[in-house]
């Protein structure tokens, strides 16, 4: 540690200041890699100034040989930075998928917040991570939802470093004298993200210029602003589509009004249908299932059911106009799991 303060370190500190209210208790999620250690160093400065109270949570996934030693070293470096409440937690990962590890990690974060009273967890994702996420989202073909990348803030989880390049983050570690861990899985070509990072992104930068990652990150910010606005409208339109449904039907999202759905712009209708499905506990429907739902709304020959992932299916019902004056409904119900169990 020493020498002139790098611009990037000042930017990291100011980014945390902009996102975390003064006096808050936060935890830095630290893996021992360059990004999370740089984040810990920037947060530690604010902790030392008494602006916020900063601790750290280190999660050992036990998926690689020597993972506990890596976690212990990361915890030691966080303590050397002067952080309070440095927790090292084990995570039980079902299988070895990236998604399973992520779920276990976030469960450990929730445990750490409950244990320490922390209001926020700081995550060390960088501009490069965001650019890679946009490319992966583009490959999925899910529109602005995929192109919007990772949010800077979602609930208690904050990403202050999304405006900084990975190479800049490493400057912080060098300035602070922090030796960071290079995760060997980050070069494993079996993982699609690594191929994007090491093969696709360098080619993009060579052909289109070094500003490609920053341009992709800007695209994510613009797409997220659009998506959040459309989602807020979709939430209102979902309530409208429920119409005069009773409390039980409203809770189960039964009886969405077909006339109302058909009158919506496509960009809103697709979001309303996606929102209805996810509220019932199923994953967001993919393009094919969403197209099938839209066809059901517009009067396909079949009235369903359309099986969605998880415990959700959809059918189209004709209301009893004479007795109840009801309109035709798209009926969504979260009972498929129970219905199909032996």
TrEMBL record:
Keywords: ATP-binding, Cytoplasm, Ligase, Nucleotide-binding, tRNA processing
Binding site for ATP: 31-36
Catalytic EC class: ligase
Highest taxon in the source lineage: Bacteria
Primary location recorded for the protein, binned into one broad class: cytoplasm
Reaction equation(s) it catalyzes: cytidine(34) in tRNA(Ile2) + L-lysine + ATP = lysidine(34) in tRNA(Ile2) + AMP + diphosphate + H(+)
Residues of the tRNA(Ile)-lysidine/2-thiocytidine synthase N-terminal domain: 26-199
UniProt-listed InterPro entries: Rossmann-like_a/b/a_fold (IPR014729), TilS/TtcA_N (IPR011063), tRNA_Ile_lys_synt (IPR012094), tRNA_Ile_lys_synt_N (IPR012795), tRNA_Ile_lys_synt_subst-bd (IPR015262)
Subcellular location, record wording: Cytoplasm
SUPFAM superfamilies xref list: Adenine nucleotide alpha hydrolases-like, MesJ substrate recognition domain-like
All copies of domain tRNA(Ile)-lysidine synthase substrate-binding, residue ranges: 256-309
Pfam families attached to this UniProt entry: ATP_bind_3, TilS
EC numbers, comma separated: 6.3.4.19
Homology family: Belongs to the tRNA(Ile)-lysidine synthase family.
Domain notes for this protein: The N-terminal region contains the highly conserved SGGXDS motif, predicted to be a P-loop motif involved in ATP binding.
Biological role stated in the UniProt entry: Ligates lysine onto the cytidine present at position 34 of the AUA codon-specific tRNA(Ile) that contains the anticodon CAU, in an ATP-dependent manner. Cytidine is converted to lysidine, thus changing the amino acid specificity of the tRNA from methionine to isoleucine.
Identification of the protein by name: tRNA(Ile)-lysidine synthase
Lineage summary: Bacteria, Bacillati, Actinomycetota, Actinomycetes, Micrococcales
Gene expressing this chain: tilS
């Amino acid at each position: 540690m020493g020498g002139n303060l790098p611009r990037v370190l000042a930017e990291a500190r100011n980014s945390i200041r902009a996102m975390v209210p003064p006096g808050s208790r936060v935890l830095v999620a630290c893996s021992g890699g360059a990004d999370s250690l740089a984040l810990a160093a920037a947060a530690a400065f604010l902790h030392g100034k008494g602006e916020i109270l900063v601790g750290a949570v280190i999660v050992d996934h036990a998926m690689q040989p020597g993972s506990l030693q890596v976690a212990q070293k990361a915890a030691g470096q966080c303590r050397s930075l002067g952080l309070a409440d440095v927790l090292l937690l084990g995570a039980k990962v079902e299988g070895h998928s990236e998604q399973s590890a992520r779920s276990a990690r976030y469960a450990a974060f929730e445990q750490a917040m409950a244990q320490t009273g922390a209001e926020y967890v700081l995550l060390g994702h960088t501009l490069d991570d965001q650019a890679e996420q946009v490319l992966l989202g583009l490959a999925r073909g899910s529109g602005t939802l995929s192109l919007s990348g990772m949010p800077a803030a979602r609930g208690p989880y904050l990403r202050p470093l999304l405006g900084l390049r990975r190479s800049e983050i490493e400057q912080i570690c060098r300035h602070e004298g922090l030796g960071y861990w290079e995760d060997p899985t980050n070069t494993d070509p079996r993982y699609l993200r690594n191929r994007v990072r090491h093969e696709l992104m360098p080619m993009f930068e060579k052909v289109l210029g070094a500003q490609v990652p920053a341009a992709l990150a800007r695209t994510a910010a613009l797409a997220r602003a659009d998506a959040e606005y459309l989602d807020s409208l979709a939430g209102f339109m979902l309530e409208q589509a429920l119409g005069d449904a009773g409390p039980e039907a409203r809770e189960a999202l039964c009886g969405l009004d077909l006339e109302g759905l058909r009158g919506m712009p496509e960009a809103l209708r697709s979001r309303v249908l996606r929102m209805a499905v996810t509220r019932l506990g199923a994953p967001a429907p993919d393009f094919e299932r969403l197209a099938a739902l839209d066809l059901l709304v517009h009067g396909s020959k079949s009235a369903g059911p359309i099986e969605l992932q998880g415990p959700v299916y959809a059918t189209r019902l004709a209301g009893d106009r004479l007795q109840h004056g009801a309109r035709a409904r798209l009926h969504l119900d979260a009972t498929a799991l129970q219905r199909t169990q032996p």
